[in-house]
Amino acid sequence: xxxxxxxxxxxxxxxxxxxxxxxxxxxxxxxxxxxxxxxxxxxxxxxxxxxxxxxxxxxxxxxxxxxxxxxxxxxxxxxxxxxxxxxxxxxxxxxxxxxxxxxxxxxxxxxxxxxxxxxxxxxxxxxxxxxxxxxxxxxxxxxxxxxxxxxxxxxxxxxxxxxxxxxxxxxxxxxxxxxxxxxxxxxxxxxxxxxxxxxxxxxxxxxxxxxxxxxxxxxxxxx
Amino acid sequence: xxxxxxxxxxxxxxxxxxxxxxxxxxxxxxxxxxxxxxxxxxxxxxxxxxxxxxxxxxxxxxxxxxxxxxxxxxxxxxxxxxxxxxxxxxxxxxxxxxxxxxxxxxxxxxxxxxxxxxxxxxxxxxxxxxxxxxxxxxxxx
Lengths: 223, 141
Prior knowledge:
heterodimer; A: alpha/beta; Rossmann fold; 3-stranded antiparallel beta sheet; 8 helices; 10 strands; B: alpha/beta; 5 helices; about 15% strand
């Protein structure tokens, strides 16, 4: 899941400063699950923005709506009539969603209401943790399902390093050492032999070839 | 000073609303500027509803719920407390006084406590100027 957080109110208010009619679009996907991008949060921010503008002697009209996922053109297309009515969009999608909305309605300013943080999941209620760096070369079968690239501060492939103490990482003693977790997990699985080979440096080329894509595209529509 | 404030009180049906009702039965009076809205639980008060009250010109809003540990839905009042804290932060960002929003807790039998809390809140709102949201809207009747 993509994890996002709300932008500071002042930043959002500043970016939509010149708008008088705004379509506020929630996303029922990841950002809604994060508790920052659903219809409820969109409605709350819309109300706060209306009050903010009124206190400045201006009037802002808002229309709040939502789509199933802003990262799919079919769902984004459902917004066409509302976008035509409003002329500007405040998106509660992740960075992907904002771009899909902006691509679909290229003649309309599209503003992000959220900061997109990382791919992760919630560990306890209300707290999310990064679990995947989207590196494109998954090695989890070798590490007991624990990603050292994401969860080790150094992202090393042969660990632990000397910075571990009592199973904790030197960067923050509340952070468990990913490589200690990997050792424990593989020991429980009876697969510690996976730790014997020295892993070569990672090939980071997968992550530096422009926007990453999955699947085979036969046309240029993805450009 | 605001001699004719508009105050909205979202009152949990199982405690504060019953306490307000009991106050009426006991002929215990509280500030007539308060308009009470019955709700099933304070945990059901969406932040957007509170913001809408301010947007529509309320000078003050209070949310009155059950005592800690006595919520009929177990933790609705605790959630409401967290929401009020978050809403106060929103009011601050908007430049509105956080004193315009409060949550207090009573049981269904605490008519006089309801009176005391509601009256104190109303006095505080009366001491503040009318809500700038209302004033600039030209509805300061």
